[in-house]
Each structure stands twice: as C-alpha cells, then as structure tokens.
Amino acid sequence: MQVHQIPIFKDWVPEWLARAVIFAVLLNSILGFALYYNNPESTVGYYGIEPSDVQYSVVVMYASVVSFLALDFRIIKYFTTRKYLLIGLALNAVTYVICFYTKNWILFLICRFVQGAVCALFCNIVLNLIFPRLHSGRSRVIGYTIFYGSLQVSIPVCGIYCSYVLYYFNFNWLFYGLIILSLPVLFAVLLTMNSKSRIHKKIPLYYLDLTGYFFYTVFCLLAGYILVYGQQLNWFENQLIWLLTAAGIILLVLFAVRENRLKRPLINLEILKAKNFVTGLFLLFAFYIFKGTSGFTYGYIESILGVDPLNIIPIWVFTIVVTIISMFITSRFILTGTPLIRIVIVGFFILALFYIYMLCFVSNTGETNDFIIPTCLFAIASGVVFVPAVAFTVSSAPPKIAFNASFIGIFARFLGFCTSIAINNYVQLYTKATVYEKVRESMTELNPQLDLTLQNIQNTYINQGSDFIAGKNASGMYLKTLIREQILARSIRDYYEIMLVSVSVVIILLILMPGLNKVVIRLRKGSLPY
C-alpha cells in the first residue's frame, strides 16, 4: 500500500523508487527551463540575434509556465497521471527535435512557449504527487524546501551542463542532450506507474476558462516584451511601447472583470484583498529583482577576468552545495517557530553583505577563487529568503481560496524577473555611458599621461619581440581593451551600489511594517507551492 491513498505507482514499486521517479520528472522540467540562461553568447552566435532576443526567449517560456499553471489546475483532473506525463514528454521531445534542426527564431520561440506549458504540466503533477504524501506540517516544510531547493540549483546545474556541451558542440546540441536525458524518465514512467490511476477524481473540462487564459497569456507576453525591449526602444518615446502598454492595460482590465464575474474563474482575485498576502507578493517580487544580479557576477568573471566557462564550474558546485545546506538549515528554523519575516530580513541582510563584498573586490584584476565567497553569500541569501517568503505568502492567504496563492505567487516572481531584466538593461547602459563620458573627458591629447601610458605599453610589446609598428598598433588595441574593461567594472560597481541601497530600503520597510511577525505558518495539505 502506498503512502498516499491513490495507487499512482504499481504495487511492486518501493517508496524510494517512487520518490526517485518524481524527482526525475521535476529535474527534467526545470533543466529545460533554465537551459541557456548562463550562456546567452552561444545563443546569440548560433541564431544571429541580439542579447535582448535571448532574454525574451526566456521570458516567453516563463510566461507560458505562469499562465498554463492556472489552466492546468483543471486539466490535470481530467487525464490519468501516466497519460498526462507521456503527453508532456512527447511534446517536449518534438519541440527539442525542432530546436535541434531549425535556426528559425520565430519557430524557436514557439517551441519555447510549448516547453513552458509542459514545464508547468510536469511541476503540477510533481507537486500533486509530493504533497499528498506528506501528512504532517513538518513534512510539508521539508517538501517545500526540496522543491524550492531544486528550483534554486537549476541555474547552476544548467550552467555546468551547458559549459560541457558547448565546449565540444554547437548550441543546438543542448536540445539533443535533453532528448537523451528524457529517455530514462520516459521508461521509468512507463515501468512504474499504473496506466489508469489518477491524482484526482475525473472532472470534465466544461466551463474551462480558455478566454481568461488567452487574456492572461497575452498580457504576460506583452509585459515581458515591454520590460525586455523597453530600453532598446527608448521606452515611451517609441509608439510601439505605447501601443503595447495600452493593449496590456485593456487585457488586464478585461481579465479582472471576467474573473470577478465567473463562477469558476481561472484565478480567484479575491485573494488580493488579504493585506499580508500582498506583502508576501512584494517580498517575492523584490527577491526576484535582487536575484537577477547574479548574472552580473558570472558575466564579470567571464568578461573581465577572462575565465573560461569550464573554470567557473567549481563556483557553481559551491553554489549548489551552499544553497542546499542553507535551505535545510532555514527549514529547521521554520520548524522551531521562528517568525518568518525575521528569517526573510536575515536573508536580505546577507544579500546586502554580498553587494558590499562585490563593491570591495570588483576590478579588472582578480582570481576565480576570490569570488567563491560572494557567490556563496548569494546562495545563502537565496536559500534563506525563498522558502520563508513563500510560506509567509501562503500562510497569509484566506484558507478557502489559498490554492490561488500558487497562481498569483508565480506571477509575482515572473514580474520580478522581467523587472530585473529591465533594470539591468537600463542601469547597465546608464552607468556605462556615465563612466565612458568621464573617461573621454580625461583621455585627450592634452593629457600627458595618455602618451606616457601608450609608450609604456608599446615598450612592453617591443621587449617581448614585436617590431616598432606592430608594438604601436598593439598598444592602441590593448589600451582600448583595458578602458573597456575598466568601464564595465565601474558600471558593475555602480549597479551594485544601487542594489545595496535598494535592499537596505526593503530591510528597513520590513522592520517598520507592523503586524508581520504575527503571521503564523499554515501550510495546509491542499496548499501547493509555486
């Protein structure tokens, strides 16, 4: 007899194997989600696109996950579990094959959208398999920790996978590898699961809010497009941004009006009337803005320090280990009854330490080992903030409609992720332009230090065996490279200064806001994470 009441797995399947299959399905879904997040240059080179296009491809998949997760709440109750998983695996395989053979960018975006829906499908099934097996509140806290720990380590795991594959093969071979990795999952599902078992009692798909799903999906795609391409199009100086913003507002109003009138809405918006729930959404939104700064650290190590992606793998390994340890330690504090908001404040304080460390060490020189400590600080902060913030948000929701916290919570994370891209694009351009203007003002022919610096660089090349002309040309190129690295390093420091001020403001607000410590953790059996 299985731990849960519905025999999803066959009688001969032991509990450890059932959990291993569930985890394999989860890993398969998140591996495709965070696939090339840390290696955008390879995508740019393969498809001949702009970096902002790569960012939007990630947003497209994320938007698909956000919108389909709400719709799937009903669909999952119609299909048998094994059949639904097999449909998802088949859709993934087809899109992976298309991505492997095509260089058409529009077709690639369509495939990523489908993969996002499949990712939501997998996560929904996994969550419905995990949490009915956890009967006590203690077990559900551990379940939350395992699920979110998997999400947190997905980016470094994908970074390791991509580094190895891209070192030997082209970008499209990433999808070939995913096809191979999906085969063991396919065989495990076929071998261990009953063909006629289901998680919920079968419910027909009548009154399925497809119109609301359409409004919600298009709104997410439009919001992502505006935030990703806004800086490139000069924001509201461009007519397209005005049109997309107007369309987004209209869609949002139509969606809200429709959901409030329906008996079976896609998302019950009544949950937004809970004050502390909105505070929890703010925590998730802010956390994902700060979480987006990790890309600057890895970009700095690769671009300025010139470290090969394969040599960054030790940092990713440290990040994975530290994230797992910090999340399980945090779960122990939650179980002892420590106020959730206090844990979140500690996490944001550790994040502030990360920014301070980076401000002290960012320059155009350094060693990879120097950045193990800050990346570990960032991993600790992520592990400390994430689960308590989610638990705080879920516990603040009214019990009757608490399941809607999943749908709105993941939207808050999505919006924070897109906002972090917009802030990164704007601040990076602004700080680079500011630093470049200061450098340009000082680097003139009237500055005697310029000629002296060029002469010293030229002498260095001549001493190494270059002739006079080659040394002169090389000195100019070297100086340009050095200036570009200095500008990038300075802009990164300026960006971290802004983030340090921002996280300090968040900490102060959380300390001053009354009543947050009174929120008691309530992880109900029907409440699934997001």
Automatic annotation (TrEMBL):
InterPro entries: MFS, MFS_trans_sf. Keywords: Membrane, Transmembrane, Transmembrane helix, Transport. It is found in: Membrane. It comes from the Bacteria. It is a multi-pass membrane protein. The chain crosses the membrane at residues 16-36, 56-73, 85-107, 113-131, 143-167, 173-193, 205-228, 240-257, 277-301, 313-335, 340-359, 371-394, 401-423, 498-516. Pfam families: MFS_1. SUPFAM superfamilies: MFS general substrate transporter. PANTHER family: MAJOR FACILITATOR SUPERFAMILY MULTIDRUG TRANSPORTER MFSC. This is Major Facilitator Superfamily protein. It comes from Chryseobacterium vrystaatense.
